[in-house]
Write a structure and sequence with these properties.
Helix content is 21%, strand content 34%. The protein has eight helices and 27 strands. Strands 1, 2, 3, 4, 5, 6 and 19 form a seven-stranded mixed beta sheet that branches. Strands 8-15-9-10-11 form a five-stranded parallel beta sheet. About 1% of the residues have low confidence.
């Protein structure tokens, strides 16, 4: 266990930056800060080792953008962990932050006891958690055999336990698609993947490589309406849904199975943010930020999946590195420019990140469309004048869209409007 130098005040430890979360975002941010000359930092990770969710993602597909090579999740994580160890970046593992105040005071539970930390800046990189059956309200008993996709992945990849033989998957998120392939390779029979939306929620490459290539049918506009079984799951009832996502009478079909895998969305882990009073965006379920990735609290920054759910871990790392540069500027200057210009999502745009800007520097705008579009133009306008755009042959909610916005044409005080239009 490594810790920074303590001050003479003993009980409370003082650091320039406290990073909550030792996954891909936290590791990338810490390395970038250290390379920027900010050495008095601490990474606080609640798991027994660094790496976050990547430890159980043994499939490849990571690193093409960040390292220009194909890596598995553990390999990608290890590349950052090795840098942390080489640089001597301080960190704590098996440590949970149980209190976080607006004054950037942290209370941390560790195996050796309770610790308190004061920081000049706090970075939140706490990632996501999965939406569970309880959030869906599916009728039925509570038998063994209902898992989220991530839990099933951990059983197989971390603990070498096979949780299923006959499988039904609800939701077409990327983890669910990847688990459809993984379970098939391990000898289970995946009967079908059911998606309540009229379009898939996973990346096209995962739909092809994990469902189509293994002849696993994907049914859109379908959902599970009943769970059967007392002790062990015996089957599920699946129904078609209408345009309002309500079950259509007479379309019920029973699928016998011993396992139901849920891949129905991720929720950014923002309990600490709420406790500290950070303003949250109901569309992303993450904090409201400016172009510097600073939240509504001065000196509190955020990046990674706790801010917005990313398609690729490479994007998480790159975002964290950009944020680290802004944290460095904050520590040197004591404050960042005020962000008074709002960014408003309109016309088929689900959300944008950031939600506010200062207008004093160019920034990377991230967004998702709210419905599938073809041959479309993403426009960023101010006072009816287009200042940035991107043309796409296809845009789907599952894919994050990014474009750089130059501030040369911006005027102060006027909102930016982001919209999508099909040609």
């Amino acid at each position: 266990m490594k810790t920074p130098k303590e001050t003479a005040h003993a009980q409370t430890k003082h650091v320039d930056v406290a990073i909550i979360g030792g996954g891909p975002a936290g590791l990338a941010a810490a390395i970038q800060l250290y390379q920027n000359g900010i050495h008095n930092i601490i990474i606080i990770e609640r798991e027994k080792q660094l790496g976050g969710i990547l430890r159980q993602c043994i499939h490849d597909g990571f690193g093409l953008t960040r390292f220009s090579e194909m890596l598995s999740g553990p390999e990608y994580a290890q590349a950052f962990i090795d840098q942390v160890e080489t640089l001597g970046v301080p960190y704590l593992v098996n440590a949970s932050v149980v209190h976080f105040s607006p004054e950037k005071h942290l209370t941390v539970v560790t195996p050796s006891g309770l610790q308190t930390w004061d920081a000049k800046a706090v970075i939140l990189t706490t990632g996501c958690r999965e939406r569970t059956r309880g959030a869906l309200g599916i009728p039925g008993d509570r038998p063994v055999g209902v898992f989220t996709a991530g839990v099933a992945q951990a059983y197989i990849n971390l603990y070498n336990r096979m949780p299923a033989k006959e499988v039904v998957i609800l939701g077409s998120g990327d983890i669910g698609l990847i688990m459809a392939r993984r379970l098939t390779l391990e000898g289970a029979h995946v009967q079908a993947i059911f998606e309540i939306q009229p379009y898939p929620n996973g990346l096209p490459r995962n739909i092809q490589q994990c469902a189509n290539d293994y002849h696993i049918p994907l049914y859109l506009n379908h959902t599970v309406t009943q769970i059967h079984g007392r002790n062990r799951l015996t089957g599920v009832t699946v129904s078609q849904v209408d345009k309002d996502r309500q079950p259509i009478a007479g379309t019920d079909k029973f699928y016998p199975c011993d396992t139901l895998i849920l891949s129905v969305g991720l929720i950014p882990e923002n309990e600490l943010s709420r406790e500290a009073g950070v303003a949250l965006d109901p569309r992303t379920n993450g904090p409201v930020v400016n172009e510097f990735y600073q939240t509504s609290l001065d000196g509190v920054f955020v990046s990674g999946n706790v801010l917005q759910v990313h398609d690729l871990v490479d994007y998480v790392s790159l975002e964290a590195e950009r944020m680290a540069g802004n944290v460095t500027a904050y520590l040197h200057k004591g404050a960042l420019p005020e962000s008074s210009i709002r960014i408003v999502a309109k016309n088929s745009i689900g959300y944008t990140v950031p939600q506010r800007i200062s207008g004093q520097s160019d920034f990377l705008l991230s967004l998702r469309v709210s419905r599938p579009l073809t041959d479309c133009r993403i426009s960023v306008c101010q006072d009816g004048k287009e200042i940035a755009f991107r043309k796409l042959k296809k845009a789907i909610p599952a894919q994050l869209i990014q474009l750089t916005v130059s501030t040369d044409k911006l005027s102060s005080g006027h909102d930016l409007e982001v919209s999508a239009h099909e040609n």
